[in-house]
Amino acid sequence: MQTPFERLVAWLLGSAATAMLIAGVAMLVAAIPTWPMTAGAEAPRAIVVIVMQMGTVLVVGGLASKYFLRRRAPMLPNERVTVAEDQRPSLGGWLTVLALVVIAAPLWLVVQLRPFLAEWRFVWGYIAAPELWDNANANMSGVVLIPLAGALTPPFLQLLLLAGFVATSATLLPLLVARSPRFPRIYIASLVLLSAVLLASIRATSGVMLAGDALRQEIGRTSVDAAEDATMRNALDRYINAVRTAAPPLGWTWLAYAVWIPLLLTPGRVSTTFGSRVERAITRPESAADIETITRPPRSPGLGL
After folding, report:
1. Domain assignments of the chain as residue spans, ordered by start
2. How many CB atoms lie within 10 A of CB 221?
3. 101 half-sphere exposure, CB direction, 13 A CA radius
């Protein structure tokens, strides 16, 4: 039987998988009709392909995570083991190291991405400015915001991945300390979601590189003077650098979580630690009548006793 916290974590993961599935479908719906319009345009067509790849990854990740969470039949080695609560081994060895990694990995990631988060504070200040929304309302009901939304998608995926690592550790650590039987399944389901966002983020970073090369050429053709050209190029380089430098720490953090999957799938002490809960059978103490029956067996009619 699941505890309330285990049910809450499973519900949160299921909701995240549903949101990922919807986002992936939305990307595919937006990209597929655009494909014929980019015939003959190399860079736009490559970006459309990247968007379709991102949408496919998110759809697959969302479906896989939902299937993994909802399947009731035992799938992992620990789910085929039943252990009494008082016989469950304590955490130790590699599981202690895993607990330390779950604590340290998101903290290290936040420290590494401080420049990236600083850029997001700048962007948030720009988005929150009333002038932006006033101009959007005055120009075709916000059509001018579409390029801004497209440009913010790659760093938003990276920000979402950062938040996902922090939230994953916050939910996994209590389950690990409690030696919850749901810990291995929730750990793997969480990593499936994080892997899908990471792959989508990697493809989005590739799209940023392609778009950056195309925009540099466009800036050289459309800038009015050298000062405007330098300002636009500096802003573009700042944006590309923020996205590019955030990618390696996110990848290393994902690897820090992924290396533990084989351990969780190995039968043995780990499976026993997270084995399915079963109450210890309590034997009823012998009563006085039972003892008398044992010490004074019934008489045998044949012997006349």
Report:
1. 4-303
2. 6
3. 15
